[in-house]
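Input record, target 12 of the design panel.
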């Protein structure tokens, strides 16, 4: 066991897979010499050489397009796009080719590739550096979308993503890259994709979150505890596929649900979860499902993020309102 941050856990997962599987290659923007802008791939090029871990041009469409070709040719590429907002130039390749190739070939080809990138706000960054585009990718049939919230999950989910025969969008919450530390096994282990985790059991209301919002939700839960409210917290872990069973079971137990996510509220993962709540547990609901999400605007630049980022106080306000409905 070692104490790891999310950065270290992902690095460790990549190290394990590079070591055991010669078909795995890691590349992208500054991932080689510099180890990535957040140093997630630090030391891997030195250990495995420039043919296995290497820098690419700053051309996101080219990165994803070449990775698709590699995946179809027997390799397992893991590519980094430097920031969430930098994924948009690659969206044509992802939507038109990566997500469709298995269907287009009627199952003749699989696409074992991982597209990983930091996402979300909270680091006072510039435009295109603080987006939460998970709903864009989850809407594309053929992709799986994964978001870890802890070092343990980051390692296990990354190993599962690399070993998957499907293309994976792996979104890393940059706000907590180094803010969360946890004992993680040094050995190889995996976590099934598409399976949510009940972080904490409760009886009064279900709180569903993922990524950096798990930590903010836990702070809000402490406030709720002081107010005598019992909250069940679910970490979604996979945006697609969503674990309907775990979500439905929890809502049927508590009768109330709140979704917490950074992304813009309209047409969001939060919207999908409310639909699932209605489909799986409508007759059990004792209050309208609620969302605590970002506003329908571009994330403010730098210091202005504080007006946009979801706080524990805002989550607690919705918890109180829902329980007292």
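The sequence produced for target 12 reads:
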């Amino acid at each position: 066991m070692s104490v790891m941050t999310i950065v270290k856990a992902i690095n460790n997962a990549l190290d394990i897979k590079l070591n055991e599987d010669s078909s795995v290659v890691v590349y992208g923007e500054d991932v080689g010499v510099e180890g990535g802008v957040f140093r997630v791939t630090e030391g891997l090029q030195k250990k495995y050489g420039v043919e296995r871990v290497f820098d690419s041009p700053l051309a996101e469409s080219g990165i994803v397009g070449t990775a698709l070709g590699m995946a179809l040719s027997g390799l397992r590429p893991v590519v980094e796009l430097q920031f969430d907002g930098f994924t948009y130039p690659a969206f044509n390749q992802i939507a038109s080719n990566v997500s469709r190739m298995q269907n287009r070939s009627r199952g003749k080809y699989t696409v074992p590739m991982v597209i990983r990138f930091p996402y979300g706000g909270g680091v006072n960054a510039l435009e295109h550096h603080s987006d939460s585009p998970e709903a864009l990718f989850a809407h594309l049939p053929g992709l799986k979308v994964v978001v870890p919230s802890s070092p343990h999950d980051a390692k296990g989910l990354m190993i599962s993503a690399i070993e998957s025969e499907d293309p994976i969008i792996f979104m890393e919450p940059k706000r907590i890259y180094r803010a969360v530390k946890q004992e993680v096994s040094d050995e190889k282990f995996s976590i099934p994709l598409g399976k949510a985790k009940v972080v904490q059991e409760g009886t009064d209301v279900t709180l569903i979150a993922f990524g950096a919002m798990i930590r903010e939700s836990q702070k809000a839960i402490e406030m709720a505890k002081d107010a005598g409210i019992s909250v069940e917290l679910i970490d979604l872990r996979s945006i697609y596929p969503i674990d309907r069973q775990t979500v439905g079971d929890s809502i049927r137990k508590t009768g109330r649900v709140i979704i917490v996510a950074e992304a813009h509220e309209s047409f969001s993962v939060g919207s999908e979860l409310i639909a699932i709540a209605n489909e799986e547990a409508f007759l059990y609901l004792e209050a309208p499902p609620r969302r605590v999400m970002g506003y329908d605007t571009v994330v403010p630049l730098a210091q202005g993020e504080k007006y946009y980022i979801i706080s524990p106080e805002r989550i607690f306000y919705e918890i109180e309102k829902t329980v007292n409905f």
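The mean pLDDT is 95.
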